[in-house]
Model the fold of this input.
Amino acid sequence: MDKIKQKATVDNVVSIVNANTYLRLEDQTSDTAFYSTRRHGNVGDETPGMEDVLEAKKAKLLLKDAFDNLEFEFETVDEWVHLNIIVK
Done:
C-alpha cells in the first residue's frame, strides 16, 4: 500500500531542509524556497564540490518522499550549487 503524501507549504519545506541539510536559505516567497551552498566548492577552479551536489540531492529526496506537490530546479554555477523548491 502506498503511503499517502501530504501537501507541502513553503514553511514545511524550509523546516525540513534547514533541519536536515547544511544548504543555506537565500530567499523565500509564498511558493518557492531558494537554497544554495559552496561549502565544498573549489573557488579557484570555479567547480562545485560533489558533497554539495549530494547534499542538494539529499534535500530533494527527503522532500519527494514526504510531499507530492513540489517541483525542483537544480543547477551549478561555478563553485555554487543552487536548489530551488517550488510548491505547486
In short: The CA atoms of residues 56 and 83 lie 6 Å apart. The longest helix spans residues 50-66.
